[in-house]
What does this fold into?
Amino acid sequence: MTKKQFVKEAHAICYSLSKKQVRQMEAFARRHGFDIGEPGQRELEQVNAAVVMPIVEEKIEEIGALPAPKGGNGKVGKILESMEHGIHRAEAHPDWLAEPTKAHPDPFTKTIELTAAYGIWICGQA
It folds into this structure.
């Protein structure tokens, strides 16, 4: 697989999962009686744990199943590792994903940087 093919496939995966995440977030909000447009800290933490983290895990699984482009295995591996690291940090500190600060940035900051640099920016969105 060429890098261009990999980027196209990964982008399609992440786009599809992004749409799935939006649908699941809306359904979660309806079931739990809050407005997804204006959730509070507690609601954000709940939806992140119930919806966002499983979607990121799906991204890891599906992107990891793609054959890495020649010479790109290390970069793809670093992207997947950064996603896994982001999950662990978000699980340990749910408030960091819900309300990131300078002292406690978004656990997926590195993922966002790596995916943008590789051309699959949509995959970095948690």
In short: The chain has five helices and no strands. Residues 3-32 form the longest helix (30 residues). Residues 27 and 33 are 10 Å apart (CA to CA). The chain has a mean pLDDT of 92.
